[in-house]
Amino acid sequence: MLMKNSKQSRISIGMPVFNCGDTVEMAIKSILDQSYDNFELIISDNNSTDATSAICEHYALCDSRISYYRQPTSITWPENFTYVFRKSSGEFFTWAAGDDWKSNNFLKLNLELLIANPSAVASMSPFSFEKKGILTPRIELGQFKGMSIHKFKKFFEIANTSHGMLYSLIRKESLEECDFMPNLFFGWDWALILFLLEKGDIVLEKNAYTIFNTSGVSNSPKVYKIHGLVGIKRSLPYLKFSLEVLKFSKNLACKDKFYLVLLLTRLNFLTAIRELRKIRYFLSNAKKCIRSTFNAVGN
Question: Where are the domains of the chain?
Fold first, then answer.
């Protein structure tokens, strides 16, 4: 009965891409090679300037399950993520990056697990990171079940390794009311994961996996600048994130909301201390450089 139900379920895969001509073919093939074939692949090209467009157009012509869209002008990466989500028609949805790779049983096994767990809003699998051909050990986050505040607490404990949760297989209806999705702010992916956790459980399918490339936005040296965080703004990068989390968590019990405020305050405080130390270190080095330059000129 489980397989009969799962075969009737349509999955939408949203692939927002930009200048990933070296990897996008691999990413598309990992979707086309899935053992579960009742899906649509929606690709949104954010005005790429390399071979990305030609590769995506080729595959769209070869497989009717692929829809390819090219943005006429550049949009922000959350807008591109939102674009593919809004174009989707399936009951279930997952994002796929243009430089990542999913095991060929990812859709099938995660869908079966979601159908078997009606209280779950998403199903994820273990994942690894790939850098220059070297894979990190596989990361397995476990399940996120129970009261929202308990799931939030667990998330903040593993937040820096939560990448795979964003690329879970998701019940599309659980994200329909996410009004911040198109907005660019630091910690957008964390906010979206917490939004899902407020809606329900996230379960774990251990027998599938994803390999993530490390060339994405979160690993860019310009990540703060991309999010408009320059100067003193760098000391509080999670401020907008915190306000959004408090907004969609307004129905928590008073004691749980207080605990959430403490979690967010701690995150902002520790980040501010770290960033201010970086700024102080930079200014100190700049001062030494200027002083040594003047001394050299004077001699």
Answer: 2-219, 221-299
The string of pLDDT tens digits covering residues 75-134 is 999 999 999 999 999 999 999 999 999 999 999 999 999 999 999 999 999 999 998 888
Can you give the C-alpha Rg of the chain in angstroms? Answer: 21
Alpha-carbon distance 244 to 248, whole Å? 6
Cα–Cα distance for residue pair 14/42, rounded to 1 Å? 5
Note the pLDDT of residue 239. 95
State the amino acid at position 91 in one-letter form: E
Residue 226: partners with Cβ closer than 8 Å, 6 or more residues away: 77, 217, 220
Q: Which amino acid is at 2?
A: L
Q: What percent of the chain has pLDDT over 90?
A: 77
Cβ–Cβ < 8 Å for 114, 169: yes
Q: Are 125 and 164 in contact (CB under 8 A)?
A: yes
For residues 158-183, give the mean pLDDT: 96
Q: Is 165 exposed, middle or buried (0-12, 13-18, 19+ CB in 10 A)?
A: buried
Alpha carbon distance 140, 293 (integer Å)? 51
- Band the pLDDT of 289: cuts 50, 70, 90: low
DSSP codes, 55-92 = HHHHHHHH-TTEEEEE-SS---HHHHHHHHHHH--SSE
Nearest-angstrom CA–CA distance, 41 and 102: 14
Query: Which CATH architecture describes the domain 2-219?
Result: Alpha-Beta Complex (3.90)
Strand order in the sheet with 101-102: 101-102, 210-213, 127-131, 134-135
Higher pLDDT, 221 or 194: 194
**Contact in structure between 122 and 114 (CB atoms under 8 Å):** yes
Phi/psi at 106 (5° precision): -60, -50
- What is the identity of the amino acid at 239? L
